[in-house]
């Protein structure tokens, strides 16, 4: 049996917007209110259009002191999920800065390597 292709997904955004809560929902099937200290990693299996894949999910700290450390984790990512809080307008206003980081540090994202399945140009949302 061929192993499932792995796709690296990073959660990005300001501190306190819910990145860790989303991460813990995938990792342990629960939501949490604690903030992340540093970086965490987990994997999750998913099926997209009948193809089994593995997501390598990274919870990156959004606080400014971790920004240079976080930039290393953009490397070789296939997806960056920008997260903001509906009750914190500044987190929405700062998404453009996080998006600029993704554009700058994910230059290799267009060439995901041999494990990437054939792409369908039509956009879609897939539940994990």
Automatic annotation (TrEMBL):
The keyword Amino-acid biosynthesis is assigned to this record: no
Pfam family, one: Ras
Top-rank taxon: Eukaryota
InterPro entries xref list: P-loop_NTPase, Rab, Small_GTP-bd, Small_GTPase
Keyword GTP-binding part of the UniProt annotation: yes
GO molecular function: GTP binding; GTPase activity
SUPFAM superfamilies: P-loop containing nucleoside triphosphate hydrolases
Keyword annotations from UniProtKB, A to Z: GTP-binding, Nucleotide-binding
PANTHER family for this protein: RAS-RELATED PROTEIN RAB
Protein name: Ras-related protein Rab-18
């Amino acid at each position: 049996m061929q192993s499932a292709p792995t796709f690296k997904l990073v959660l990005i955004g300001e501190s306190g917007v819910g990145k860790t809560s989303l991460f813990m929902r995938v990792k342990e099937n629960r939501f949490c209110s604690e903030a992340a200290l540093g970086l965490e990693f987990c994997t999750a299996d998913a099926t997209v259009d009948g193809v089994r894949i593995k997501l390598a999910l990274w919870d990156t700290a959004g606080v400014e002191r971790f920004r240079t450390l976080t930039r290393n984790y953009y490397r070789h990512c296939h997806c960056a999920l920008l997260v903001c809080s509906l009750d914190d307008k500044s987190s929405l206003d700062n998404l453009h800065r996080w998006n600029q980081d993704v554009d700058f540090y994910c230059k290799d994202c267009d060439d995901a390597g041999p494990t990437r399945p054939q792409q369908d140009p039509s956009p879609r949302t897939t539940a994990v």
